[in-house]
Write a structure and sequence with these properties.
The N and C termini lie close together (11 Å). Helix 2 runs antiparallel to helix 3 and helix 4 crosses helix 7. Helix content is 58%, strand content 13%. The longest helix has 25 residues. It contains eight helices and five strands, in the order βαβααβααβααβα. It has 213 residues and is of the alpha/beta class. It binds ligand Z5A. Ligand Z5A binds next to helix 1, helix 4, helix 6 and helix 8.
């Protein structure tokens, strides 16, 4: 059976990931592509419980070491229980964040060494890497403005300062520059309909290639 594709959506806060997911789903539905929509941290009961702990402001302080192990523990369960079986069954997985987020937030943001992240990635994911990663890029100030305008309070990660989120953005852009064949960087400062159009076009192109395989 033809393996499904793993497509991941990444970006800083307020970049518009949640906003484009509905359009992404509609594109895959229209193409008749089987898929699972999921998110990280999360996607399984254990991983969702870990997500709640990682994002809970009451967990302050959480050491960078504990935080990185929690996100990778969630990922190990997510890959084993959902991602790998879904891909093997011939369905796509569309994930709101995946391993690149750990390199950006725990690596760039918290300063966890890259060799530790590399080891954790190999250990936790069984080598399952994204076929395509769409990075919605927006300057930190604009992303924060959008999230504040949306309201609803800030979780534990969202309480970090602008310097932290600048490092996160820098780490994402460095990874995208290092792997241009996997990443598509979308300028998310533009109006939402233009951002959505780029994401839909990327999925259409992937779907066309997959259909021909
Ligand atoms: N995390 C981690 O540390 N390590 C890991 O390994 C993983 C994750 C996997 C949960 O992520 C947190 O976990 C995250 C990283 C950490 N923490 N942070 N910060 P999440 O994805 O669940 O949470 P988020 O990134 O904070 O989501 P968000 O702030 O909601 O961002 P978004 O989904 O990209 O944005 P949105 O909800 O679609 O849009 C926000 C608002 O902006 C909304 O009102 C929109 O209408 C508006 N918007 C969106 N796009 C536009 C455009 N183009 N123009 C104007 N307005 C727009």
């Amino acid at each position: 059976m033809r393996r499904g594709l793993l497509v991941t959506l990444e970006g800083g806060e307020g970049a518009g990931k949640s906003s484009v997911l509905a359009a992404a789903r509609a594109t895959l539905d229209a193409r008749g592509i089987p898929y699972r929509l999921t998110r990280e941290p999360g996607g399984t009961p254990l991983a969702e419980a870990l997500r709640a702990l990682v994002l809970d402001p009451a967990q302050l302080p959480l050491t960078p070491e504990a935080e990185v192990l929690m996100v990778f523990a969630a990922r190990a369960q997510h890959v084993a229980e959902l991602i790998r079986p879904t891909l093997a069954a011939g369905s796509w997985v569309l994930s709101d964040r995946y391993t690149d987020a750990s390199y950006a937030y725990q690596g760039g943001g918290r300063g966890v060494p890259i060799d530790a992240l590399d080891w954790l990635e190999r250990f936790a994911t069984f080598g399952v890497r994204p076929d395509r990663t769409i990075l919605l890029d927006v300057p930190v100030a604009e992303g924060r403005r959008r999230v504040d305008a949306r309201g609803g309070g800030r979780d534990r990660m969202e309480r970090e300062d602008d310097a932290f989120f600048d490092r996160v953005r820098g780490a994402y852009l460095s990874r995208a520059a290092a792997e241009p064949e996997r990443f598509r960087v979308v300028d998310a400062t533009r109006p939402l309909d233009r951002v959505i159009a780029d994401v839909v076009a990327e999925l259409e192109s992937l779907a066309a290639g997959w259909g021909a395989a």
